[in-house]
Amino acid sequence: MDYKFNDDLSFTFTIKGILPGRSWSNILANRSYGFIATDAGTGHMWHLNSRENRINRWLNDPLATKGTEQLEWRTGDKRVSLFADSDGYDCAVTYGFGYARWDKNVEDSHFSVLAFVPPELSARILVITSDCRDGELLYYTDLVLGSENSGGPHIVTEYRGGVISARNSLNTEFRDDVFRVKASEEPIAFTCDRLSWKSGNPDGRSGAGMLPCAGMVLNNSGNTVIVTGCEREEVIRSLCEPETVKAKLLETCEYWNRLVTPVRIKTDDPALDRYINGWALYQVIACRLFARCSVYQCGGAYGFRDQLQDVTALLYSSPELAREQILRAAAHQFEEGDVQHWWHPLGRENDTDKGVRTRCSDDLLWLVYALCEYVSVTGDTELCRIEAGYIESPPLAPGENERYCVPERSALRESLLDHCIRAAELVIRRGEGDHGLCLMGSGDWNDGMNEVGAEGKGESVWLTWFAGIVFRRLGELCRELDNTTEGDRLLDYAEKYRTAADGAWDGMWYLRGWYGDGTLLGSRVNDECAIDSIAQSFAVFAGADAEKVKTALDSAYDRLFDRDNGIVRLFTPPFDGGEQSPGYIKSYSPGFRENGGQYTHGAVWLARAFILNGEPDRGYELLRALLPDAHDNGMYRAEPYVLAADVSDNEDNRGLAGWSWYTGAAGWYYRTVIRDLLGIEIVRGELTVTPRLPEGPGGFGAELRLGGEIIKVRAENGIIRVIGNRGNNNSIKY
Prior knowledge:
Elements: E1 2-5, E2 11-16, E3 25-29, E4 33-38, E5 45-47, E6 69-75, E7 78-81, E8 90-96, E9 99-106, E10 109-116, E11 123-130, E12 136-142, E13 155-160, E14 163-168, E15 179-183, E16 189-193, H1 194-198, E17 212-219, E18 223-229, H2 233-238, H3 242-260, E19 263-266, H4 270-291, E20 302-303, H5 304-311, H6 319-330, E21 340-344, E22 354-358, H7 363-378, E23 387-392, E24 402-405, E25 408-415, H8 416-430, E26 459-460, H9 461-480, H10 484-502, E27 513-514, E28 520-521, E29 531-532, H11 533-541, H12 546-560, E30 561-562, E31 567-568, E32 571-572, E33 598-599, H13 600-612, H14 616-626, H15 633-636, E34 646-647, H16 665-677, E35 680-683, E36 686-689, E37 700-706, E38 709-716, E39 719-724, E40 729-733
Antiparallel strand pairs: 1-2, 2-8, 3-4, 4-5, 6-7, 6-12, 8-9, 9-10, 10-11, 11-18, 12-17, 13-14, 14-15, 15-18, 16-17, 19-37, 20-21, 21-22, 22-24, 23-25, 26-27, 27-28, 29-32, 30-31, 33-34, 35-36, 37-38, 38-39, 39-40
């Protein structure tokens, strides 16, 4: 399969009449509406929540060829998909920021299908153009309008004036939703009955009591618009107008280009430049923040810690999105200080969101971390004083590790700073284990280690490093905001945690922790998980003993980085039938995902640790290995333009990418390159540039958009040159 990056960083690949073994996708979404575009046009759509309010089926299958949504050209007995297909016809698929396009040659005719989701509308626009005026266009999608993957006879459809509308009478959580489909011309025929469509007899039926769908037969006029969405009927109709389509497409492209390119870099590595100059933040915003969905996972929910980490990568381009997520997360904290590990946003105003209450231990720390990051970059301490409410439900009972429920809204409201202090207080109340380390609970960052802390006794070195980092930053923030007593107390605990974690030394690296029965985890004595990367990475971030840190990073580099295959393992060896019982992580085959494969999120942390510890050559080497371009796509197989969440280290398929798109690694990768490697930092609204570059002659250039000002940076031969559009011109040695 041929593929290339275009000058505008869009990506084009050509499928030559036979679908590849794995689909490549693009996420087209805004805050309320979304669509997964794939090469074969499988087309999952949603409104407000990609899992709980699916419009049509989500296919959990990257090998799928046809599925949820179909668009075909028919002439005589010939029917041809206008998406890529195994039909012998070449199809060039282009994915850009906010749009997807399929260009297909069928015999002597050329067809082009363009799809995009306008930034502020709950709608998706398809534009079909061709140099052919013969035949008909067939549009079809099944209808779900809820959380399940199969729509039923309770879905009520209606046809009026060229518009098919549908409502799910049993979907009480999104009771006001009406899905509509409208084409720019009246259909020749239609049906809302799936059996009628499949039999080739669009009989004009609508109503209830059938397997629902939206099927239309349209004249091929050479320029057709099909709009789907949950907007009012008059809005859907207006979006079929050619001038409106042009305006909305321009608006969409300008919106995404502005949002994902606050910094443009030029280095000696074109693959790095391509990812950082658009695709990284597009992956964070379109997929992680807006869609919360991909071909590989239909989540729909906000993860308390997940999106808080994601938005810290947006502080240069769109701090308002980070601010929104910080406030959103705070409103999902219980009075006791713990939080909903994840929750589903629902369509009803003033209701709380259903989600899960757990004993996952690191959840308590990410709100604090995100708020401190926000203040550090923007200088906006007023956010700390804004009040947010809590939620309430009975606390988890002894022996109860999690509960899925819809909590009540608490009458208690406190400042965001108080929310953070309340979370920190719960960490303190939960106490430490026999080695002075924070308790792992039902999992720290690695959810799969959910049995290490069985009976409330297991300890986590990684969590203790992280708690020390967060407590130090929160303590300093409390002091700045004149809460000196609380600040001093938190700083004392920060040092206590740092000291305890620094004592968890195994001779060549830091332990991962202790099981509840006192068995070591992440030790040389372990046959499985002898060394885990994140305990070594966070030792750097926490300011641990310099000599130990150097030895730990050397050990991690030697044992976890497979240079030949470009794989950075999370830990090694994987769990494989041994005596240790860490949790459900053992359900993964050895070398897959968290079980000893490359879990890219953690791999980025290791790269960052090398950079911050004065070894940028190794840090960059790891960052380069994580890019899709560094892998042979014959084995890697996932999209070359976004990061994969994991890469297999299993001997049967070493180098095979797992999930793509839906990974927290994207945001951390962006931050690590911009802030740590290139050293472009904004501190309290002021720009500083302190590069930590690998050895060699190469420097870098960068262009930043900050507060309406364009700033150009050039770092070369030990000199940094900074030029702003207001006339300032500074040269700084580094």
